[in-house]
Amino acid sequence: MLVLGIESTAHTFGAAVLNLKGEILSDVRDVFTTVEGGMIPKLVARHHEQIADTVIKKALADAKANHIDLVVYSRGPGMSPCLRIGLAKAKEYAQAFKCDIIGAHHPMAHLTSGLLFTAAQDPVMLYLSGANTQIIALEAGKYRVFGETEDVGLGNALDKFARALGLGFPGGPKIEQLALQGKWTELPYTVKGMDVAFSGIITRVTQLANKGVSKEDLCYSLQEVFFSMITEVTERAMAHLRKKEVLLIGGVAANKRLCAMLEIMCKARGAKFFAVPMQYAGDNAAMIAWQGLLEYHAGRRETTLDIYPFERCDDIDVIWETAKAPLSK
Ligand code: ATP
Ligand code: FE2
Asked: Which of 166, 1, 150 is nearest to 70 (CA)?
C-alpha cells in the first residue's frame, strides 16, 4: 500500500510517499520565503498553488510510484487559504488515482511521526515549534495537553527578540550562537502551574537591550530562563504522569542547550530523552502520510472533505493501536 501525503498548513508545501512499513520513499518540500513582511496568507497560498504540481509529481517520481492507494491532506490547523490549496490538490490526485482520501491533523502528525522516527514508547511529548508550545501525553485515549504557553509559542518568542535585535529570521539559531559568548543577567521567570508565559520576559530583555546590556548576555540569559521553564514543567508532567521518557518535537528541538538541559533532568530521574531527527522536526508531508495511514488502517473513512483551521490535538480520539511501523496490511 502506498500513501501520498500533502502538507500545506503554513510556509511549507510538501508531498511525500510512504509505505506500510513507515518507510519514506520520497519527501519533497518547497518553502515560501520572503525578505520582508512575513507570511501573508494570500501570498503563501499563491506560492503553494504555483509549485504544488511540481512538488507532488517529483514526490511520485522519486518514489517510482505509478499508483497510490490513499491520499492524505493536512486538514489544519493552519492558514485557511493554504489549507484549501492542499485539499484541492489532494482531491485532484485522489480522483486521478481513483483512491480514498483522508484528512490529518498537523500537530498530531508531528506527535505520531515522533514515535515513528524514534524508539520512544510512551513519552511525555514536548512540542516546541514557532507557533506551538505544549506538553502532551497519551492518557485515557487522547493526546492530552498538560501544559502550554499562555501567550506566544517558544520559537515565535525567540524570533520576536531576534527581530528586536535586528538578527533576522529565524531567530532561534542566531540567539543560540550569540548565547555561547554570554553570561547571566537577571530576568523574570514565569511558570504558572504547568503553563508558561514568554511575552513579559521578551518585554524585559528588549528593555535591557535598549539600556545597553550586551546581545550575548541577553541571548544567554533568555535561553537559560526559557529552557529552565520548559524543563521544569516537563519534569512536573513526568512526575504527575509517572512517565519515564521525554520526546522533543518541533523546530526548537535543534537547540543544543535545550536538549542538554532536558537530558540532565531525564538522567537525574532515571528517564530517557529522545528528540525527533532534525530532518523531520519541521513541517513535512511524510508525517501527514503517516498520520493518515494510522487512522485509515484503524478504519476511519472521511465523510466530509473539509479544512479545520483551529482544531486541537486533544479534540481527536486516538483510534489507532500503535504509532510504530510496520502496520499489519
Ligand atoms: P508549527 O506549524 O508546527 O507550529 P512552525 O513552522 O511554527 O511549525 P517549526 O518549523 O517547527 O515551526 O520551527 C520553527 C521555529 O524553530 C522558529 O521559531 C525558529 O526560530 C526555531 N528554531 C530553529 N532552530 C532553532 C535553534 N537552534 N534554537 C532555537 N530555536 C530554533
Ligand atoms: Fe508544524
From this structure: 1
Cβ contact 126:235 at 8 Å: no
Q: Are 249 and 273 within 8 A, CB to CB?
A: no
Ramachandran angles phi, psi of 147, nearest 5°: -155, 155
- For residue range 122-181, list pLDDT tens digits in order: 999 999 999 899 999 999 999 999 999 999 999 999 999 999 999 887 899 999 999 999
37 pLDDT band, cuts 50/70/90, is: low
- Measured in angstroms, how far is the CA atom of residue 204 from the centroid of ligand 2? 28
Report the helix count and the strand count for the chain, using DSSP H and E: 9, 12
Which cell goes with 45?
Answer: 497560498
- Ligand 1 centroid to Cα of residue 98, in Å, is 37
CB of 132 closer than 6 angstroms to any ligand 1 atom: yes
Q: With both helix axes pointing from N to C terminus, report the angle between 199-210 and 215-241 in degrees, rounded to the nearest 10.
A: 160
With 0.85 as the threshold, say if the pTM is over it.
Answer: yes
CB contact at 8 A, 306 and 35: no
Say if ligand 1 is within 6 A of residue 114 CB. no
- Whole-number Å distance, alpha carbon 186 to ligand 1 midpoint, is 25
Nearest Cα to 313, choosing from 138, 195, 194?
A: 138
Asked if residue 84 lies in contact with residue 51, where contact means CB atoms within 8 angstroms, the answer is no
Q: Sheet containing 142-148: which strands, arranged edge to edge?
A: 142-148, 133-139, 124-128, 245-249, 272-275
Structural domains in the chain, sorted by start: 2-110+281-322 (3.30.420.40), 122-275 (3.30.420.40)
Tally of CA atoms within 13 A in the half-sphere of 40 that contains its CB:
7
